[in-house]
Amino acid sequence: MSTSRDVVFPMGRQALYERNRYSPAVRSNGFLFVSGQVGSRDDGSVEPELETQIRRAFDNLDAVLQAAGCTFDDVVDVTVFLVDPESTLDTVWKVLPEYWGDAPHPALTGIGVTWLYGFQFEIKVIARLPDAIELEKGL
Hints:
Elements: E1 6-8, H1 14-20, E2 25-28, E3 31-38, H2 50-67, E4 75-83, H3 85-100, E5 107-113, E6 121-128, H4 130-137
Parallel strand pairs: 4-5
Antiparallel strand pairs: 1-2, 2-3, 3-6, 4-6
Helix pairs in contact: 2-3
């Protein structure tokens, strides 16, 4: 049985995702499942400086969320992947509040990894779609 996926593409980056053969996000059952976002430039190349790379990853994530009509406030679950967490975690904690907003914060899992295709940080999330929230509230 074949099902089509309700895929979300941020503006201007569809060719990058098609070249790498994955979807940036998929809507399903009231949720948005966002693939891991890294600090890549528009051409897909690595942003070399760690803090800028983390900000770019959050900006890339934000673009995917916006394409689905979501914001960081809709995010319920986060997974971050860090190469060398001991040396990168402080920089992540420095940048994260600028994007996250006020409490309550989403659930968060951090995973130390040995390789991220040249990147040092990756973030993937699950967000609640605004339409699903409105339906739940009876609006």
